[in-house]
Amino acid sequence: MNLENRYERGLAKLREIDGEIGERVVESLAGIAPDFARYLVEFPFGDIYSRPGLDLRSREIAVVAALTAMGNATPQLKVHIQAALNVGVTREEVVETIMQMAVYAGFPAALNGLMAAKEVFAQQGALGPASV
């Protein structure tokens, strides 16, 4: 596999999912860890997100669930909640995904996830009926 193609494929997928937010994360690493920034584009987005087995909606639902369950990745969770919305996941689906994690990761993790979702939804404008 051509590494440049891998990077370019990853960058295109990152833009499709995260838009400017994703690019800013990569740019923020340039001064401290440019190799890590490249890995961040190539592996998750160039290799994994670009696979044909799941659509982007399904992938982002899985990522929101995983980051909620981790309980220690709130900045990344917020980015991926926004990404989920960008690829067609509804607010209600985000909320239900996070609530489901209470069963497996505990109420504190789900509560923290819901608060992250509330912040993301508020940044988008007025909170709608599917919000927290």
Describe the structure.
The structure is a single chain. With 132 residues, the protein is mainly α. It folds into two domains: 1-53, no CATH class; 54-132, AhpD-like. The protein is 77% helix and 0% strand. The chain has helices at residues 3-18, 20-28, 34-48, 56-70, 74-86, 91-105, 107-124. The longest helix has 18 residues, at 107-124. The mean pLDDT is 91. This is Carboxymuconolactone decarboxylase family protein. GO terms for molecular function: peroxiredoxin activity.
Q: Concise description?
A:
InterPro entries: 4CMD/NDH-1_regulator (IPR052512), AhpD-like (IPR029032), CMD-like (IPR003779). The chain folds into 2 domains: 1-53, no CATH class; 54-132, AhpD-like (Up-down Bundle), CATH 1.20.1290.10. It has 7 helices and no strands.
What level of helicity do the residues show?
over 70%
Q: Beta-strand level of the residues, as a percent range? A: under 5%
Structural domain count? 2
Kindly state the number of beta strands. Answer: 0
Summing up helix and strand content along with how strands pair, one would put the structural category as mainly alpha
CATH classification, class level of the largest domain? Mainly Alpha
The CATH architecture assignment of the largest domain turns out to be Up-down Bundle
Number of helices: 7
Mean pLDDT: 91
- Uncertain runs with pLDDT below 50, 5 residues or more? none
CATH fold name of the largest domain: AhpD-like
Q: What is the helix/strand order?
A: HHHHHHH
The rough form would be described as: globular
How can the largest sheet be summarized?
none
